[in-house]
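Q: Got a minute? One more chain.
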Amino acid sequence: MLAPYVARNRVEPGVVIAAATVGDLGAVLDSITAPAWPRPYTPTSEQQSAAAAERADLDQLVRAGVAQ
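A: Always. Here it is, folded:
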């Protein structure tokens, strides 16, 4: 019998957890410790500079399109 409740890892697609009830799935997921490494949610200074340059280029393209 296939388990009706399944959780898959987005980064490691081969990691799959299955359970018969939502409560069981929740209990298993709650028992997993989050990774210790920091996640890159905040852009680095190089990424911020690249984003600013890209925004400036896009603004210039928009202004050129409006002027036509």
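A: The first strand starts at residue 5 and ends at 8.
Q: Perfect, thanks.
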